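cron nightly-structures :: item 1 of 1
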Amino acid sequence: MARAFMAADEHDTAVSIIEDTLKLLADRPESLERALCLIDLGISFMDQGEAYENESKAKTMFELALKLFSLALKIQRPKLGDCQQVLETLDAIGNLHVHLQQHETAIAVYSEALALARKLRSEPDKIAGILFFLGECNEALGNLDGAKRRYKECVEGLRLERMPDDLDLARPLQRLGAISLLQSDFRNAKSIYEEILKIRKENYDSREILLAETLDVLGFVEMKNFHYESACMFLHKALEIRMQHNSLRNQGDTLYQIGIAYRMQGDFTTSLSHLEQSLSILEPIVEDDSPLLATVTLAIGDSYFGLGQDEEAAIYCQRAVIIRNNAFGPDHRKTASASRSLGMVNFMLNKNGDAAYLLKEYVRIMDGQVGYERTNEYMAALIMLSDIQVANDRRKLSRKILLTANGVCSTNTRVFEVNEDDNASSLVAYNETTEALQKMINLRLNASPSLVQPGGLSLQQAAGESPSVPHNSEELSIFRSITLRDD
């Protein structure tokens, strides 16, 4: 009777009935009937805890439920031994430890439950469920490799019972994909999310928002794999679905991603079109100082930079710097990236004072970042700083900066091996830019500091009332090929 009231969400009545029954069983404290009542009472408290929005009240209910299930287990084990009832109680105890954020204890309980389930030869679905919870606990503790192993076991178990397009497979696959993204294993992430997409296509209408989310992730993954055309394909499909839903924020996000994908293919005009659409959608619905707006405006500045429209680029990059400085502070990595972008644009505009200040700030902040990989953008910033010093007749400082740049370039870990399944043109272009920057550094280091200006021009040609930094067209093209992306 109590369970009927629990099913109807009438927990007060259910608890009252169970407590009355427990009083009747007071003279039989070790009976299985009492264990069953304790479990029923624990289920009621657990259900109530899950329904509470107040975290403190929920925690109290979970703690009470845990005590009740633990008491029931002490009664069950000696009398029943290894059986399905004990397994169910262990499973519930593990769930309660998760609710209480006690993940290490939950792992111990779930591991015991897994061993028992395998001993009892429980249904593959049951074993897969325990494996999934073990994966979640390991993930919560930051043990991604342990989580990945459990999720893989979960998928393998479900495949023994389910059809290849069963929706239950998508859940552990989703976690495996997320871990691959965290570990920057983008090739593996692609194969996982492609399987998720196939499963969801078989189970959902073509307008289902979950399809758009999966397509969005695949677009992001393909950009990380340097497959920009494929990324555009996935992202356009995601946008098509999102346009059928009133999800303006998501539409803006997807348009931004599409813009970046076109930018990485060198199609600045198409990139700019999508980025401006993204900004027009996002501006009315997010705060004026939202970091998201800074990201989009910086990308718009990047596209103008690629088109050679530096005055326009400066306007958008300046806005990004202001927003990020307000949101994150002047010493944040994101602020530094925006400062570098504006510094590069000012350099191209021959605004050397502003460029030098911004690029110095960028280098200072990024040098303080632990584990930061020195990219082409970083090396270009150093070369620009060096050239500004030459224009200001500070040749010793210029050479010091160049030596730093040379050291960075010689240890650059961002030179890629081009494999058959890569977008070779994108990787080759990045590697060629790296080689070109090294050539520019060598040219400057090997030249006579008293006679030669970057680009092969004399210092006398660079002298004047307003010192500027002349470059040949090839060098300008190299600088302009470098995206103003975030580090």
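cron nightly-structures :: done
The radius of gyration is 30 Å.
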